[in-house]
Amino acid sequence: MAGVPSTAVAAAGLIGGYGTARWSGRRELGGAVLAAAGATAAVQWHRQAGPATAAALTALYLAAFGGSHPLAKKIGAWPSVLAVTGVVAAASALATRRGD
Predict the structure, then answer these.
(1) 15-23: which pairs have CB atoms within 8 A and are 24 or more residues apart?
(2) Which residues contact 91 (CB under 8 A, 6 or more apart)?
(3) Angle 2-8-61 (CA atoms, 0-180°, nearest 5)?
(4) Could you give the angle at the alpha carbon of 37 between the alpha carbons of 12 and 29, nearest 5°?
(5) Largest CA distance in the chain
(6) CA distance 39 to 83
(7) Is the predicted pLDDT of residue 100 greater than 50, yes or no?
(8) Stronger pLDDT, 3 or 72, i.e. the higher one
(9) What is the DSSP letter of 3?
(10) How do residues 3-24 score in pLDDT, each as one tens digit?
(11) What burial letters (b/e) apply to 47-79, b meaning 16+ CB within 10 Å?
């Protein structure tokens, strides 16, 4: 995934992980998608912005996953996943943008 931006990788992990779990009926498959994309994004964040930023964005990614569950009870599953994905994507984009 060298040519795919870290922001897109993280978003794909959150959305793809949920979609995989939902449509396959296998939560562990969704978890595998979430973990693989999260690990890939973490490596990219480390390269782009350093270890501290990578750690913060990885923590946010995991918090978004965890936070989407109680949020889903209030606004629904897909809206919850999309909301937390937006937060992670925005933080990733801001943290990894390069000044011109």
Answers:
(1) 15/81, 15/82, 15/85, 17/65, 18/68, 18/77, 18/78, 18/81, 22/77
(2) 57, 60
(3) 110
(4) 90
(5) 45
(6) 21
(7) no
(8) 72
(9) T
(10) 899 999 999 999 999 999 999 9
(11) ebbeeebbeebbebbeebbeebeebbeeeeeee
Cα 32–Cα 61–Cα 72 angle in degrees, nearest 5: 85
Structure tokens at 5: 């931006």
Euclidean distance between CA atoms 69 and 46, whole angstroms: 27
Any residues with CB less than 8 A from the CB of 33 and at least 6 apart, and which?
Answer: 13, 16, 17, 20
Chain segment 35-66, per-residue pLDDT in tens: 999 999 999 999 999 999 999 999 999 999 99
Identify the DSSP state of 93: H
Q: pTM score > 0.90 for this model?
A: yes
Q: Is the pLDDT of residue 1 over 90?
A: no
Query: Residue 2's pLDDT is what?
Result: 58
